[in-house]
Fold each of these.
Amino acid sequence: MKLFQPESKRPLWKDEFSINRADEQYVSRRQFTKFLVLTSLGMFAGNVWILARSLFRKSPVYPEQNICRATDVPVGGVWLFRYPTEKDACILIRPDDQTYVAYSQKCTHLSCAVYYAPAKNRIECPCHEGYFSVKDGSVLQGPPPRPLPRVVLERRGDQLVAVGITIKEET
Amino acid sequence: MGERSSIEQILNMFGYEFYVDPSRCIGCQSCVNACAECETHRGTPMIHVDFLDRTNTIATVPFVCMHCEDPTCAKVCPADAIKKTEDGVVQSSLKPRCIACSNCVLACPFGIPKMMTELEQMMKCDMCYDRTSEGKRPMCATVCPSQALAYVPREQIERLRREKPSNVFFFGKQKVTTKVFMMIPPERDALSVDVVDYMWEEKA
């Protein structure tokens, strides 16, 4: 068993796929250094790409969408709607007379549908008992890692309109 | 092996060599059954005892892998599944790699590899690598009553046998050198096998 082998004259693939187990598993110092340099280069290029993407990324444009009339929702009641696309379930809550808030209905933990619990005045996820604040969607307890994305509401006369979504990072 | 074995000892298989003497084979199939006992491939013997010429003679011959220095089976393997270790033992196919293409079965000059169709894998003798690599004798050689299969030091076989061990074979013009020795008549140096001699044709 030779610990140090000279670089052979044969093509590299013949060593890489040699029928001798020792040759197949042997890695020369030069090969290892090449591997290190190339992987580091790859990682560096990847980071530069991520940086460039985040610099040039446009913030997404959300459509305006009529949800319902303010009188449709009773105090302590909810109104389910979909925003910004048909696949994104959202929940509008009226905790008291003058307040309307709307959040994405997907729990940030494992995407179960959350619901409003009027007795405790909080948003609850039934799957793993993750609770969210009605005031700003922040996590009160349980496994969810991030607050619920909040749907920005505007009131135009009697009409409630969704105009955007704000996503808060991990708290 | 009581003391710690050095690398040289391991690479020389602890000074032991494998000798096959077909003229001593009595066809008892002990080696086949002993091989099938092994826990690494239980129930599937990797040694074959064949009749030479069934109509004219009861002579049998045991076939173990000869472990060529330049293994044809490994060279023709498209999936890189057959490997030779530092001590010269050509291993059986690697299960995750073998694609059951039977190239090795067709290519081996000695006809050793066998395709296990139900496992979709080629399996062949690996000289009981689990045993010989730590200084034990292969299963077949331990049970062979006539020592047609012998795993002994070189001096011992030279002292006890009339025949001469040889590991050089000629298949036509192809020279094959092996790790396993075949016992041949003392006046010969190498065994020459011309395939045409063994074809079932009327010779003019």
Amino acid sequence: MKYVCLGYIEPGKFENMTDGERNAMVDSCFTYDDLLRKNGHFAGGEALQPPGNAVTLRARGGKVTVTDGPYAETKEQLGGILILEARDLNHAIQLLSKHPGVQAGPFEIRPAADLAGMIRDSEQRRSKAKA
Amino acid sequence: MRYLLLCCFDEKRWNAIPEAQRGGIMKEYGEFLQSLDRSGQHLASAKLEPSSRAATVRGGNGKPAVTDGPFAETKEQVGGYHLVECKDLDEAISIAKRIPTIPHGGTVEVRALES
């Protein structure tokens, strides 16, 4: 079962660390990522550029508008995602609790929805529509 | 350059859409993803289970604290994401504009990944 971990961090927190602090943080995170990888629990991960580089799209009166900045003006902003392979939510919590990144900001863990059935049904509907 | 398209939706509003209409939106979604597959720009996607099934882990002094529910109590919640390969932000925006949930109230945040 895959769990998507949304990692949040206060903008500037990472950038404002001293080089020593930042290197220690990065090295401890990557060391733990390697351990997750070795044990088959690391199913993907990506770091995002700062929210100042984000744009947000929404529809207003049928027209799609684009605004600069992230979707939610929360104190902490999405900084990266980590995908864990875990037995269940408790296992995912256990694995993530030991991740050094949690010391930098909160992580939301969400089970990935299994779309296999929905994709199969949709393919059947579409192939029927074509026939 | 890789971009994350973060799809947010008011879950109550989504659940209030009649099932047949939701099915139609998901069908359009399938076609949208297939077109990204064909252009070779689709790297990864995931749909998340409802935020009521989320847990949040926060670092404290030593032991992380675990709470039920999503990180932010916003009206709209992250429902899924797509990772796409684009030449620049403009191209990522033009792809994001085609996401079929937007006309029904969805919001999409576009963010470049650290290279």
